[in-house]
């Protein structure tokens, strides 16, 4: 099929989304349900309407933009990603998959393609954990990995509930209606920047993802005793920051001691109170991210971290409150969808390599709902979650063309 992408429109769409940030540059901050997120969503809805897609939004703000096929009773073929961004992040994480899916649909329409299966763009709400502590809210809820009760129990670091945020954003449909039955889609494909260095290092434009990492998140509150920095002598102290510092180092050594080179662990949040130079930190809050591409070494690291917390807090007479927010199984991508991507790569003479994803994505949860796979494109230096995250237009166009032809293959 003679299909051509409108690179000008894609560049304009990527720039338009990037312009919506909660913070001045460099980088982009776009927290779910914030003003920038809502403006970016409005922009995307307009582009989808222009493409003649039928729009639906659920109670969390997951957006479904459907191009009806000739046999609408068949399960749709879907593609999409997220547009929320962690603080001071890049312009491509997630957005490439959303704009890529939109342009793939527009290009297929321009080429006169008529799908039998409907083709649907999905914008997932809150893939990033920044606001509510746990990532992939939208795809977890769609797949049933988070129940309506669990969703109602979520709140941000100031104590403001998900319910309050979503209703202010005008997403008021019942959370009970979010979950989709297994088989709702014939296939789901997500295009995403690799967020790693391999494709660039190997000079390969396409990664075909076979598995997606198993993420886990711990939330830890430490309570010692604050006091006057001059008046309280060292042996009398219960310093929450020092306990947290030992724990952060224990997190690092737990990852290094599983024997798996794929285990990673990060203390990404470390806040102390009262935060005065002349007051002993009496309280500390840590958020810890632990992953591996297999669940066993990831769980081994979690167990090591738990026992380290217990012994460090015991020795330092610190109380602690530890919550495991999530410990998800890894996902295997579906062979039929992988094969469709590979065949299309060969049709397009696109070099490719099989990969695992160390980052998690909405595909991690879509994989429990329908046959799912991912297409990676290179990003410069493997850098992501940083203002200097960069994907070349050439690679974005190659990934989008591959997606368009694969969607055609799967929806014909
Ligand atoms: O953290 C992740 O893996 C994803 O970028 N949210
Ligand atoms: Mn991300
Ligand atoms: Mn992402």
Brief write-up:
The chain is of the alpha/beta class and 412 residues long. 35% of the residues lie in helices and 24% in strands. It has two domains: 7-213 and 330-411, 3-Layer(aba) Sandwich (Aminopeptidase); 215-327, Alpha-Beta Plaits (2-Layer Sandwich).
Key terms:
single chain, 412 residues, alpha/beta, Aminopeptidase, 2 domains, 9-stranded mixed beta sheet, 4-stranded antiparallel beta sheet, 35% helix, binds (2S)-amino(hydroxy)ethanoic acid, binds manganese (II) ion
Lay out the secondary structure.
Layout: H1 7-18, E1 28-30, H2 35-50, E2 54-57, E3 63-67, E4 76-81, E5 85-89, H3 95-110, E6 119-123, H4 137-143, H5 148-152, H6 162-168, E7 185-193, H7 198-202, E8 206-212, E9 214-223, H8 240-256, E10 264-273, E11 283-292, H9 295-316, E12 319-327, E13 331-332, H10 335-347, E14 352-357, H11 363-366, E15 372-377, H12 393-411
Parallel strand pairs: 4-6, 4-7, 7-15, 8-14
Antiparallel strand pairs: 1-5, 2-3, 3-6, 8-13, 8-15, 9-11, 9-12, 10-11
Helix pairs in contact: 1-2, 1-3, 3-12, 8-9, 10-12
The structure holds (2S)-amino(hydroxy)ethanoic acid (HGY) and manganese (II) ion (MN) (2 copies).
Residues 82, 93-94, 127, 192, 361 line the site of one manganese (II) ion.
Protein described:
- With about 400 residues, the chain is α/β, with parallel strands linked by helices.
- It has 2 domains: about 5-215 and about 330-410, 3-Layer(aba) Sandwich (Aminopeptidase), CATH 3.40.630.10; about 215-325, 2-Layer Sandwich (Alpha-Beta Plaits).
- Helices cover about 35% and strands about 25% of the residues.
- It contains 12 helices and 15 strands.
- Strands 2, 3, 4, 6, 7, 8, 13, 14 and 15 form a 9-stranded mixed sheet that branches. Strands 10-11-9-12 form a 4-stranded antiparallel sheet, covered by helices on one side. Strands 1-5 form a two-stranded antiparallel sheet.
- Helix 8 (about 240-255) packs antiparallel against helix 9 and helix 10 crosses helix 12 (about 395-410).
- The longest helix is centred in the C-terminal third of the chain and has 22 residues, at about 295-315.
- The mean pLDDT is about 95.
- The structure holds (2S)-amino(hydroxy)ethanoic acid and manganese (II) ion (2 copies).
- (2S)-amino(hydroxy)ethanoic acid binds near residues 127, 128, 135, 359 and 360.
